[in-house]
Specification:
Shape: elongated
Radius of gyration: 32 Å
Helix content: 55-70%
Largest sheet: 4 strands, antiparallel
CATH class of the largest domain: Mainly Alpha
Strand content: 5-15%
CATH superfamily of the largest domain: Multidrug efflux transporter AcrB transmembrane domain
Number of helices: 28
CATH architecture of the largest domain: Up-down Bundle
CATH topology of the largest domain: Multidrug efflux transporter AcrB transmembrane fold
Number of domains: 2
Strand order of the largest sheet: 2-3-1-4
Structural class: alpha+beta
Length: 780
C-alpha cells in the first residue's frame, strides 16, 4: 500500500470523480408508508386507500374568527374567500368548509337549481337560519371538521392530491398554504394554522433534512479541531477531513447507483460517517506517533504503524458494518435501508483510509521550517497532558488489582438489572412530542386536539354494492353508531371524536321535503355538482364495476400508545363484525367480495411505526452481538476473548434502555436503534485493546505487563477516539427534532459508558479469564 501509494491514490481520485455526479442525485424519500415492508398489511391497506380514492392526506387549515356566525354573513364571506384561495393552491384536490355547506343549502332551497337545470338564488346565507332543521343538521354533522363547538375556531379541510412524486407535491402545497395563512389580516387575531399528519411529517422531514447537512458540517469541524488541538497537526486534520468527505461522496454515489433514497432514519448518514472516519484515523495517528518516537523516517514510521494497525482497523470497520447491518433484520423498511447504508459507509471508510492516508501523510507540502510552522510537517506533537493521562490510565488499572472479581460480578449484576428494566420499555407514539412545545406546529396541534376533537385522522374503506340502496346506508349508519360507542379505558378514556361519511350527509339532506323524494343516486349527483370533488373523497368513482365508501375518523393524537393500539384493534373488530354479518353480505351480488373493508390512515401508520422499531431492536441487537462475536473471534483468533469483549460494550446500551424502562421514559424512533448501533461502534476500542494485549502476551510478557502496555498506549487512543465519537454524536443533540437529539445524546452516553467498560471492566474480565488458561485463551 505504501510502495504503490500514488497508484492507490489515483484510483481514489477516479472513484471520487465517478461517484460525485451520482452523489448529487441522491434523493430524500418523505413517504411515511414506505417505512413499512412491501408485504406489510399496514402498508398495503394505506396504498389501497390511496389507489381507491386518489387522495389520502387531510390538512386542517384553521384560524380564529369570533364573528363566524355574524348575522350579516361577514364571517362566512371571509371564510369563502379564504377557501377559494386555498383551492387555487397547486396540489390541493379539494377543500371543504362551512361556506361550501352554506352554498349547498342555498341551492337546496331551489330544487330545480339543485338538479342543475335552473339557476336560483335562495337566501344569501341559509346556514345562519337558526330555524332551519336541515341547516342545524349539517352544522352538527360537520362540527369538529369545519368548526369548533363554540364556533371560535374555524377550519377548512384540505385534501391533498396524490402524485407520483408525493414528497415534492406535498412540500410545495404546504409551503403555499403557509403563505395563505401568513397573509391573513391580523385584526387582533392569530394568523392561520396548519395541522394534520402531512404537516407534522413534512416538518419532521424538513428538520431532519436540514440537520443532515448542518450536523455533518458541525461534526466535521469539531473533530478537525480535536485533531488540531490534540496533535497540533494541520496535515492530519486535513487527512481526517479528506477521508470523511471522500467516504461520504463515494457512499452517496453507491447509494444513488443502488437507487436508494435517504429517509427519516438514514438522514444521519453524513454525521455517522464523519464519526467513524475520524475515530478510526485517530488510532492510526497515535500508532504513527509512537513509531516516530523511535526516530524512524516518516515512511518507515508509517509502514510500521500500518503493519501494527491494519488488522485492528480492518476488523473495527467490519464490526461497525456488522453492527449496522444487523438493522437489516428489522421489519421497518427504512431501518433496514439505514443499516445497509451505514454498513456500506463503514466499509467505504476502511477503503478510504488505506487509499488516502499513505500519500497525504508522506507528501511534502512545504519546506521543513514553513511546514513546521504551519503544522504541515510529518511529525505529530505530543498530546497536551500525555504523560499525566498515561499515569492516570495506569493508576486506574492499579485500582482494579484485588477487586477484579468484585468489579466483574457487579458488572454482571448491573447487566441483569438493566435487561429486566429494558423489557419494560414503553413506546412514544405521539409524533407531535418530537417537536418543540413552543413551536407553531405544537401550538396549533394543541388547539385542534382540544377544540376540534383530535388531530388524529384515519379512515375506513367499505365496498358498495352494485346498487347504492337505503338499506346499505342504514347498515353504514349502524356501523357508525357502533364505532362512536367504542371507549378504550385509561386515565382519560379514548374514543372516536368524529365519525363522518356520505351516509350522514345523505341522512341530513333527506330532512328536506323535496330531497327526501329523490333517489340516493340523484342526491349524490346533486351533491357532486354543488360540493365538487369533495364528494369523491367520500364515495369513490366506479372502477371495474366497483365503488367504495369512505368513513372519515378523527381521534385524539396525544394518547397512550397502548390506548391507540386498543382503539385501532376495536375499530377493526367492529368493522369485521359488520361486514361479516349476514345482513351485510345479503346486500351484495354473488361473487362480490363484500368483506373487503380496510382500516388505514396516518394515525394507524404512526401508531405502529415506533412499536415496530422497538420490537425489532432486540432481534437486531441479538444479530449484531452474534455477528460481532463471530468477527472478533476471527480477528482475535479466540472465541473466548471475543466473548469477554462483548459485555463491556453491551452493558452501556442496556443500562440506558434499562434506566428508561425502570423510570417509565418513552422510547421514540431515535432511542429504538441505539443498542445495535452503539454496540458496533464501541466494540472497536475493545478490538484495539485486545489485539495489543495479545501482541504483548505473544512477546512473552506476563498478564500484568501486557495489561499495562495495552492500558497505557491503546487506552490513550481509546480516550481520544471516544472523545471524537462523543463530539460527533453530541453534534446531533443540537437538532430541533427530538429523535435525532435522543439518538445523539444516547449514543454519546453509550460511548462514554463503553470507554469506562473498556478501561475498567475489560481489564477486570481479562484478569479473571486469563488465569491458568491464559496462553491458550489468547489464541497463541
Amino acid at each position: 500500500m505504501i510502495r504503490w501509494r500514488w497508484i492507490w491514490f489515483s484510483i481514489s481520485l477516479v472513484l471520487l470523480a465517478i461517484a460525485w455526479p451520482a452523489s448529487q442525485k441522491l434523493s430524500f424519500d418523505r413517504s411515511l408508508h414506505r417505512m413499512f415492508a412491501l408485504d406489510d398489511p399496514i402498508r398495503k391497506d394505506f396504498e389501497f386507500l390511496q389507489s381507491t380514492f386518489g387522495v389520502s392526506d387531510l390538512v386542517v387549515f384553521a384560524y380564529r374568527d369570533p364573528d363566524l356566525w355574524a348575522k350579516d354573513g361577514t364571517g362566512l364571506e371571509r371564510l369563502k374567500r379564504i377557501r377559494e384561495r386555498i383551492e387555487q393552491v397547486p396540489g390541493i384536490a379539494t377543500a371543504m368548509d362551512l361556506s361550501r355547506i352554506d352554498q349547498m343549502l342555498g341551492q337546496l332551497e331551489q330544487p330545480f337549481a339543485f338538479l342543475g337545470t335552473i339557476a336560483g338564488k335562495g337566501n344569501q346565507h341559509p346556514l345562519l337560519n337558526t330555524e332551519s332543521s336541515i341547516a342545524i343538521e349539517f352544522k352538527n354533522i360537520f362540527e369538529g371538521q369545519t368548526h369548533s363547538r363554540d364556533g371560535s375556531l374555524v377550519a377548512v379541510a384540505c385534501i391533498l392530491q396524490a402524485e407520483d412524486h408525493r414528497s415534492v407535491a406535498t412540500k410545495l402545497a404546504l409551503e403555499d398554504l403557509r403563505q395563505v395563512a401568513n397573509s391573513l389580516p391580523a385584526q387582533g387575531l392569530p394568523k392561520g394554522m396548519l395541522v394534520g399528519q402531512p404537516v407534522m411529517i413534512e416538518e419532521g422531514f424538513d428538520e431532519i433534512e436540514s440537520d443532515g447537512l448542518r450536523l455533518s458540517v458541525v461534526s466535521t469541524i469539531s473533530l478537525a479541531i480535536l485533531v488540531l488541538i490534540g496533535f497540533r497537526s494541520v496535515r492530519w486534520a486535513l487527512i481526517s477531513i479528506a477521508v470523511v468527505q471522500w467516504s461520504l461522496i463515494v457512499t452517496r454515489g453507491i447509494l444513488a447507483w443502488l437507487d436508494w433514497d435517504l429517509t427519516m432514519v438514514s438522514s444521519m448518514l453524513a454525521s455517522i460517517i464523519t464519526v467513524i472516519g475520524v475515530a478510526t484515523t485517530v488510532h492510526w495517528m497515535l500508532g504513527y506517533q509512537r513509531a516516530m518516537k523511535l526516530r524512524l523516517s516518516p515512511e518507515s514510521a508509517l509502514r510500521g504503524s500500518m503493519h501494527d494497525l491494519w488488522r485492528p482497523i480492518v476488523w473495527a470497520c467490519i464490526t461497525d458494518a456488522i453492527g449496522f447491518a444487523s438493522l437489516s433484520f428489522a421489519k421497518v423498511g427504512p431501518v433496514q435501508d439505514y443499516g445497509c447504508m451505514m454498513a456500506i459507509g463503514s466499509l467505504v471508510v476502511m477503503v478510504g483510509i488505506f487509499l488516502l492516508v499513505p500519500v497525504m501523510a508522506l507528501v511534502p507540502l512545504a519546506p521543513s521550517r514553513i511546514a513546521q510552522g504551519l503544522g504541515l510537517s510529518y511529525e505529530l506533537r505530543q498530546i497536551p497532558g500525555d504523560a499525566l493521562l498515561r499515569q492516570f490510565l495506569l493508576w486506574l488499572l492499579g485500582r482494579i488489582q484485588g477487586s477484579f472479581k468484585t468489579i466483574s460480578y457487579l458488572a454482571i449484576a448491573l447487566f441483569g438489572i438493566a435487561v429486566i428494566g429494558s423489557v419494560q420499555l414503553k413506546v412514544e407514539t405521539d409524533f407531535i412530542k418530537n417537536f418543540n412545545p413552543a413551536s407553531p406546529l405544537s401550538v396549533a396541534y394543541r388547539a385542534v386536539e382540544s377544540e376540534l376533537g383530535g388531530a388524529g385522522v384515519w379512515d375506513i374503506i367499505l365496498p358498495i354494492p352494485k346498487r347504492l340502496s337505503q338499506e346499505y346506508l342504514d347498515q353504514v349508519m349502524v356501523l357508525q353508531e357502533n364505532l362512536r360507542a367504542i371507549s378504550v379505558p385509561g386515565a382519560e378514556p379514548l374514543r372516536l371524536s368524529k365519525v363522518l361519511s356520505f351516509a350522514d350527509a345523505d341522512q341530513a339532506s333527506r330532512s328536506s321535503p323535496v330531497l327526501g323524494r329523490l333517489s340516493i343516486e340523484a342526491r349524490l349527483i346533486g351533491m357532486q355538482q354543488i360540493m365538487g370533488s369533495f364528494v369523491e373523497t367520500l364515495v369513490s368513482k366506479q372502477s371495474e364495476g366497483r365503488r367504495y365508501l369512505r368513513i372519515m375518523l378523527r381521534s385524539r393524537e396525544q394518547s397512550e400508545a397502548l390506548q391507540k393500539e386498543q382503539l385501532i384493534a376495536e375499530v377493526r373488530r367492529v368493522v369485521a363484525t359488520t361486514v361479516g354479518s349476514l345482513a351485510w353480505k345479503g346486500m351484495f351480488e354473488e361473487g362480490f367480495d363484500s368483506q373487503n373493508a380496510t382500516v388505514s390512515g396516518y394515525y394507524v401508520l404512526l401508531a405502529q411505526l415506533v412499536s415496530s422499531v422497538v420490537s425489532d431492536q432486540w432481534r437486531c441487537f441479538a444479530v449484531a452481538t452474534f455477528g460481532i462475536w463471530i468477527a472478533m473471534s476471527f480477528a482475535l483468533r479466540s472465541p473466548w476473548l471475543a466473548l469477554v469483549a462483548i459485555l463491556p460494550n453491551a452493558l452501556p446500551s442496556f443500562c440506558i434502555l434499562g434506566w428508561m424502562g425502570w423510570t417509565g421514559m418513552r422510547v421514540n424512533l431515535g432511542a429504538a436503534m441505539i443498542a445495535a448501533v452503539s454496540m458496533g461502534l464501541s466494540v472497536d476500542s475493545s478490538l484495539h485493546y485486545l489485539i495489543r494485549y495479545q501482541h504483548e502476551r505473544t512477546q512473552g510478557h506476563g498478564l500484568d505487563e501486557a495489561l499495562a502496555a495495552a492500558q497505557s498506549d491503546i487506552g490513550l487512543a481509546i480516550l481520544l477516539s471516544t472523545l471524537a465519537l462523543v463530539l460527533g454524536f453530541g453534534a446531533l443533540a443540537t437538532s430541533n427534532f427530538l429523535p435525532t437529539v435522543v439518538f445523539g445524546t444516547m449514543a454519546s452516553i453509550s460511548m462514554v459508558g463503553g470507554l469506562f467498560g473498556n478501561l475498567f471492566i475489560l481489564p477486570a474480565l481479562l484478569k479473571i479469564s486469563q488465569g491458568p488458561v491464559g496462553v491458550r485463551a489468547i489464541g497463541k
